[in-house]
């Protein structure tokens, strides 16, 4: 549903989150078997966007665009949430300057709020401290806000979402949107600068070394999609020990490097199966082009993660029956990918 001031988006694919978050680059894979689900409520507030949402467990790598900054407020699911390689403490806030990156893992369903602003108005609208990551290109930090400031911002986010759910037309008028905009900007300013007369919130530092390892591994995987990549390959390419590689992935995503590689390659294969560009591919060719040489194991792992066969994904994307996925005259036998 899309009203004048609010848009409601329901998603069944992690990668579709990209289109729902303006100014953000987003790559994600589900962490649990079965169907993925995310819902996003977006408020258009005069040049800035405020979103509240929830999603099933996933691993995500995201980055703000060169002209966008973001303030993120995790609301629920904090018990197991990992942001930028750190377990999330109470009252955490994520600050992302233009080009700032985010690595996230939520093994449980999570709810969040995020304020997205153009870079050229962020300083004027939020009045952040001069050394805030919001004002530095490529910067990001986690911050533990003051209890009163965090509770005020969280309650405002929940109230806005509840009002929109109860009455989707509540923000059609300009005045309700102006009021919500002013309240959000004031609440976020207090989050990042602290209440007037109080000390600044505490910054929670992440490990740059771990993050570099994880990001470099993902870049290498995307550059070599057809090559079966194993832990020892990454150790050689990245110049780190197996123990250091495992530590980086467990700290950042709560999974082993092997598990991450499998999830990312399955997600890349699914994106190819769902693509509408060009002739419909064979499932076998998609599997091989993403490093899966054991076709039966690929089909098993794919179904375990996504709750459907690869051919079902392709058929739905192309509006074909599953058997149409095979080449003319090709018989389905035990060696075919279901």
Distance linking N and C termini = 36 Å
Radius of gyration from the CA trace? 22 Å
Percent of residues in helices comes to 25-40%
CATH architecture of the largest domain: Sandwich
| CATH topological fold name of the largest domain | Jelly Rolls
DSSP E strands, number? 13
Question: What average pLDDT do the residues reach?
Answer: 87
The coarse silhouette is globular
What is the number of helices? 11
Name the CATH superfamily assignment of the largest domain. Jelly Rolls
Q: Give the number of domains.
A: 2
Spatial strand order of the main sheet:
1-3-4-11-6-9-12-13
Strand fraction = 15-25%
Biggest sheet record = 8 strands, antiparallel
Model regions low in confidence, pLDDT < 50 over at least 5 residues: 320-338
Order of helices and strands: EHEEEEEEEEEEHEHHEHHHHHHH
CATH top level class name of the largest domain: Mainly Beta
């Amino acid at each position: 549903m899309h009203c004048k001031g609010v848009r409601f988006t329901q998603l069944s694919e992690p990668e579709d989150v990209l289109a729902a978050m303006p100014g953000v680059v987003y790559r994600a894979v589900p962490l649990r078997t079965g169907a993925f689900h995310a819902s996003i409520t977006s408020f258009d507030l005069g040049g800035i966007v405020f979103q509240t949402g929830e999603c099933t467990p996933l691993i995500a790598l995201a980055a703000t665009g060169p002209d966008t900054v973001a303030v993120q407020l995790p609301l629920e699911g904090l018990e197991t949430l990992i942001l930028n390689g750190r377990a999330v403490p109470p009252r955490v806030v994520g600050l992302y300057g233009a080009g700032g990156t985010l690595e996230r893992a939520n093994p449980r369903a999570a709810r969040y709020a995020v304020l997205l602003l153009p870079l050229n108005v962020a300083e004027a609208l939020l009045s952040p401290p001069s050394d805030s990551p919001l004002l530095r290109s490529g910067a990001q930090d986690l911050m533990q806000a003051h209890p009163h400031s965090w509770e005020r911002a969280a309650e405002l986010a929940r109230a806005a979402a509840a009002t929109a759910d109860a009455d989707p037309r509540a923000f059609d008028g300009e005045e309700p949107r102006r009021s919500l905009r002013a309240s959000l900007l004031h609440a976020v300013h207090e989050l990042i600068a602290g209440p007037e007369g109080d000390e600044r919130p505490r910054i929670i530092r992440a490990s740059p070394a771990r993050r570099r390892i994880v990001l470099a591994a993902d870049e290498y995987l995307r550059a070599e999609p057809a090559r079966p990549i194993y832990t020892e390959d990454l150790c050689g390419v990245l110049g780190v020990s197996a123990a250091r590689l495992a530590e980086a992935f467990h700290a950042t995503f709560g999974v082993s490097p092997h598990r991450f590689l499998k999830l990312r390659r399955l997600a890349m294969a699914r994106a190819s199966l769902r693509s509408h560009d060009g002739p419909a591919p064979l499932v076998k060719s998609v599997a091989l082009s993403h490093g899966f040489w054991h076709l039966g194991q690929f089909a098993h792992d794919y179904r375990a993660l996504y709750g459907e066969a690869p051919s079902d994904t392709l058929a739905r994307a192309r509006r074909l029956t599953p058997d149409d996925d095979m080449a003319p005259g090709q018989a389905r036998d035990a060696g075919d990918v279901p």
